[in-house]
Each structure stands twice: as C-alpha cells, then as structure tokens.
Specification:
By secondary structure, the protein is mainly α. It is 53% helix and 2% strand. It has three domains: 103 residues, no CATH class; 98 residues, no CATH class; 185 residues, hpI Integrase, Chain A (Orthogonal Bundle), CATH 1.10.443. It has a three-stranded antiparallel β-sheet with strand order 1-2-3.
Length: 427
C-alpha cells in the first residue's frame, strides 16, 4: 500500500494530468489515423484515452476500474458513491467533459486495442525496462531475441491478436503446434521441450505483465498451466584429461585463429570460466603483476554478469597464465560479441577434429575443469567459489588466500611443456 503522503501527491497532480491527457486526446482525434503509417500514433492515442480516465478518477478520490470489475467485484458502497459523484455533475444534457467524468468513474473506457506485437514493444520499452539496467548492448539484443521468438511464433500460428481478444482456445492452438514439433511424425527431428516451455512461458509472462500494466491483473491468463514435462536432457559432456593433453594442447592445434580466440580458449582450460567471462575481461581485471597472478570476474557499468555468485577472483595457473600473459589488456576483438566467439571456436574445433563427439561443445571445458576438481577431491565450497556457483552451505571466511587457491588448482593443472610456451609466444 502506498504511503498517505504519496497518495496525497498523486491526487494533487492527477487533475492537471487528467486535463492534459484529455486535451491531448481531443487534439489527437483530429489527426488522420486511418493509414497504416500512423499505427504507432494510434496506439499512443489509445493509451492516452485509457490513461486519462485513470488520472481523472484518482483526482476525484477513486481508483479507476473497468465497469465489468465494478459490477462483479466492486462493493455496493463504492459503486453508489461513484454514481452519486456522476449525478452531482449532471446538468441536464451532458457535455463532453461530463461524459469523460462518467467514463472515468464508472469504468466505461475500454483498454487500448493493442496487438500482441505492439504489446511486446511496450513490454520491452516500459514494463520490463528495469530488467535491462546494467545489460550491455549485446545482452539486451540477446534478451529481446529470446523473448521475441515466442511472441513471433504465436503471431505466425494464431495471428497478431489484440491482447484483450486472446482466448484459451488461442493459447491451446499455440500449445498444440508446439506439441506437434516436440512429438513429430516418423523421420522428423523432435525439438526440445525446454524451448517449447520457454516460448510458452514468455507468452504467459507477456500476457500477465501487460494485463497488470493496464490495471487488469485479475484477468485469467489464457496460457496458464500450459507446459510440457521436461524430458531428460543430455548434459554437455566434459573433455577427458588425455584428450585435452594430446589434442587441444598439441603444438599448433589452434594456430591461426582470428582475434586471439586461441588465447581465450587456453584461458578457459585452467579457470573454468564461461567463454563470455574471459572474452569480456578488461585490463584492470587481469592482475599479472601480483605475487599470485589472477583474474577478477566482476559486473561492469554497461554489462551485467550471470549471478551474484559469479563475482569471484581466480588464480592463473598453467596454460591459462601463459595465454593471459600474451593478452594483458584483454580481448577487444570479442568483447561483448559472444556469438562471434562461439561461432569461430566451434568452426575451428569441428574443422580440426578437436571434438571427441558431436555432443561436445566449447562449454565442455567448463565441465571438464569442474570434473577435474571433483576427482582431485578439492573441497566442495572451494569448487563452488571458483566456478561461480551458489553454495548451499553456510559461508565461512573469504575462500582462502590467492596463494592457497593457486596451490589447490595446481593439483589439477595440465603440465606446460617448454616447447608449447615457446611455440605460443612465437605466433
């Protein structure tokens, strides 16, 4: 519940706001809104028409509610008070402003007829704006792309429905189309239930968030309880120690890659970092002059990291130390370009036969690092700290000195041959 002072301020400002919106609405009605080019203008005017009675109702001491809600859920005393307030303003033949007053108090202004695609743009620009704070441009693009995919697929299957017109049958049609894709006929590849659930979930979220945004949070969500049981997924397998030793770290195995992608790969091997964490290191994150060289994984003002537990300091040992000695300022070519890095490394590994199986990915190095720590019986809390995982155990201390962390990781590090270092530095 809002504090009394905040409510008083809103009521103080509401009359002026409602008048501004009212006159802007009247001015907008004189414009030509028939052409498709004016779709954005029409949406804006529809939103103004809906916001104006909300502000006006608040100015009169009421909260705007659609007439259906007043009839079904509103208290009798509240409804009578609204009617009396309208009657008090009646002067016989109602003027235009008196009709606006009645619309505001009795909830007869329909919500804006916004389509699914238009609602998604509103969601990105207004409703979910706080989710984008701290994200880089690439992270914002990735976030929107993931959300947009489910919305666009709904539009392709059902049509660009107005949000208020979406029915349970529409949602079931969307669900059934996904069912056909994850349970296809003979000879067709099945898509992931995880992808289906993500897209269904994004449509469910859009409907819920938009309904709340326009003050109709009690509207039944047509996408409710529509999801698929998650099939047992095949985890990304780790690289075996000997494979990394004999294949990936063989002399010249990764020579010729663009933009120091090979150095990023070597930096992954003994840190267990996510590829993006290494690619986005800045010069101030790479501490090579300390007694124990290490890297810092930290959020930036223009780039967030995955979780709070991902914030950590990792000592540099073995091939990862040698790689970062050659890139003390980081990797400008791949900074905030995760897709480019992934594509170049995947292409190189496939063309050079460096994947043991089709199921292996670049992310397999992270799994391999964790497996080596586990098999070396390194402490569970230490493993969580180094990997950036949340730890369910109570935290005591700071995880140990950097020298301690280095000594632990040296127990699992690949040996670095002099010839390998010389070859790396000769590139």
């Amino acid at each position: 519940m809002l504090p009394a002072l905040e409510i008083a301020r809103m009521r103080r400002d509401a009359p002026e706001e409602s008048d501004n919106l009212y006159w802007a609405m009247l001015a907008g009605q004189a414009e030509d809104t028939s052409s498709p080019e004016n779709l954005a203008f029409q949406i804006d005017q529809a939103r103004r028409r809906y916001k104006a009675p909300q502000a006006r109702a608040l100015a009169r001491g009421f909260v705007y509610a659609p007439i259906e809600q007043l009839a079904n859920d509103g208290g009798l005393d509240d409804l009578v008070a609204r009617i009396r307030r309208v009657d008090a303003a009646d002067t016989g033949k109602p003027s235009r402003s008196e009709k606006v007053e009645a619309d505001a108090l009795l909830g007869t202004v329909p919500p804006p007829p916004v389509t699914v695609s238009a609602a998604f743009e509103i969601y990105c620009s207004d409703i979910a704006a706080s989710e984008l704070i701290g994200k880089s441009e690439a992270q914002v693009r990735a976030w929107k792309q993931t959300k947009r995919r489910g919305v666009q697929y709904f539009v392709n299957v059902v049509g660009d429905r107005k949000m208020r017109d979406i029915t349970r049958q529409d949602a079931q049609q969307y669900y059934n189309r996904w069912k056909d894709r994850i349970m296809p006929g003979p000879g067709r590849a099945a898509l992931s239930t995880k992808t289906a659930n993500r897209d269904l979930g994004n449509m469910r979220l859009l409907f819920s968030a938009y309904s709340t945004y326009i003050g109709e949070e009690d509207r039944p969500n047509p996408f409710r309880n529509l999801s698929f049981r998650v099939r047992q997924s095949t985890d990304v397998p780790p690289f075996e120690y000997i494979w990394v030793r004999e294949k990936v770290l063989a002399l010249g195995a990764l020579s010729g890659l663009v933009g120091d992608a090979d150095l990023i790969l070597f930096a992954l091997i003994e840190t267990g970092c996510r590829p993006g964490e290494i690619a986005n290191l800045l010069e101030e994150d790479i501490h090579l002059k300390d007694n124990v060289p290490y890297i810092s994984i930290r959020p930036k003002k223009d780039r967030e990291i995955k979780t709070v537990s991902s914030i950590r300091d990792i000592p540099l040992v073995g091939v990862s130390l040698e790689a970062l000695r050659l890139a003390p300022k980081g990797f400008a070519h791949y900074r905030d370009k995760p897709d480019l890095l992934s594509a170049n490394l995947m292409t190189a590994f496939k063309s050079r036969g460096l994947f043991p199986s089709p199921a292996h990915k670049i992310y397999s190095f992270r799994h391999s690092f964790e497996k080596r720590m586990q098999e070396a019986e390194l402490d569970y809390g230490f493993r969580c700290m180094i990997m950036g995982h949340a730890n369910s155990r109570p935290a005591y201390g700071d995880g140990g000195s950097m020298a301690y962390r280095r000594d632990q990781l040296m127990k699992i590090a690949h040996p670095v041959l002099e010839g390998w270092v010389r070859d790396l530095r000769r590139r």
